[in-house]
Design goal:
Helix content: under 10%
Largest sheet: 8 strands, antiparallel
Shape: globular
Order of helices and strands: EEEEEEEEEEEEEEEEEEEEEEEEEH
Structural class: mainly beta
Length: 317
């Protein structure tokens, strides 16, 4: 069965950190060596970060440096390690942990700093794989802008952000109202929702197809755009609905929506499980469509650097 590879940067709210983790500083002379120039770091014994994914394999990337030391990883309740993050030289985009051959389904991963004496461990990005489709099917990827009629907002609670020029296509929606929600209705096998995070954004919840409600923390130390707010795959054929709601911890915190990627499957020239037709903008739908082979990777924030893409592809062999 073909594989889809998804990437999220350390700043995605899909990764949870306890209060002992802090953003990596731009004062660090090597900050630009990290993917997209960001990383999240910990120097407290037993500091933990955790992440859940639906797939068959996972890679956690970080740095190995002279002030880094030991950590362990729990995957579905099994503990691995301790691993050594020390290196006398500065090495970046290193695989801190990976596991493949997992049963397709939901998995839970926790990384814990086991070092003492204020030694560090950091997270740069996480990559995981999912089995989607069958045989030689292709993945049809459609970008659905926030202005598309498939996004439905509580009109009085949502507005255009002042920094919309930094959003995809120059448009976005934001709200400060508690419990204000937006719903994306789509037909497809996978969906990824993107937005903006900053010091002004906060907690939000996501509910897919009327199921369990999941909560995420969208607070960031700087403004970031094109951030993965939610991802789900193996949804099955038919129509789906994704509802995202603002649940700020303090009044005035925002939820900011940019666009979504919706993925359907195609057999040759026949497309199944995709809304919006074959491209362009029609009938109030603001979207663009492209075809990707399921054997290649597609990431949620941006393309991998060439060196990392090569390393990831070798790891898949």
């Amino acid at each position: 069965m073909p594989l889809v590879t998804t990437l999220i940067d350390d700043k995605s709210p899909l990764i949870s950190y306890d209060s002992t983790w802090i953003p990596g500083s731009s004062v660090d002379q090597y900050a630009d060596q990290y993917y997209l120039g960001t990383f999240t770091i910990n120097d407290v014994t037993n500091g933990t970060a955790w992440f859940s994914f639906n797939g068959t394999g996972v890679w956690v990337y970080g740095a190995k440096r002279s002030n880094h030391y030991t950590y362990n990883v729990q995957l579905d309740g099994n503990t691995y390690g301790p691993y050594d993050g020390y290196s006398p030289t500065q090495n970046f985009l290193q695989v801190l942990f990976n596991s493949t051959g997992l049963t397709q389904g939901m998995h839970n991963l926790t990384l814990t700093n086991t070092a003492t004496n204020s030694s560090y461990v950091d997270i740069d990005l996480i990559v995981w794989q999912s089995e989607v489709g069958s045989g030689d099917q292709q993945l049809i990827t459609e970008m659905v802008q926030d202005t598309d009629s498939r996004f439905q907002y509580q009109s009085s609670a949502w507005a255009s952000p002042a920094d919309a020029n930094f959003y995809s296509d120059g448009t976005g929606h934001y709200t400060e109202a508690y419990a204000a929600s937006a719903t994306l209705t789509f037909t497809g096998e996978m969906v990824t929702l993107f937005g903006a995070t900053s010091t002004s954004t906060g907690l939000y919840t996501v509910q897919l197809d009327g199921g369990n409600v999941s909560e995420y923390n969208g607070t960031a130390f700087l403004p970031f755009y094109g951030v993965t707010l939610f991802h789900a795959d193996n949804l099955g054929p038919g129509q789906h609905s994704l509802t995202i709601a603002n649940v700020p911890a303090t009044p005035g915190q925002q939820l900011c929506i940019d666009y979504a990627l919706v993925y359907g499957l195609a057999n040759g020239t026949s497309t199944t499980g995709l809304s919006g037709g074959t491209g362009g903008s029609t009938g109030g739908n603001t979207s663009s469509t492209s075809v990707l082979s399921l054997s290649t990777y597609s990431d949620s924030d941006t393309r991998l650097p060439d060196s990392l893409a090569v390393e990831a592809s070798r790891a898949l062999l």
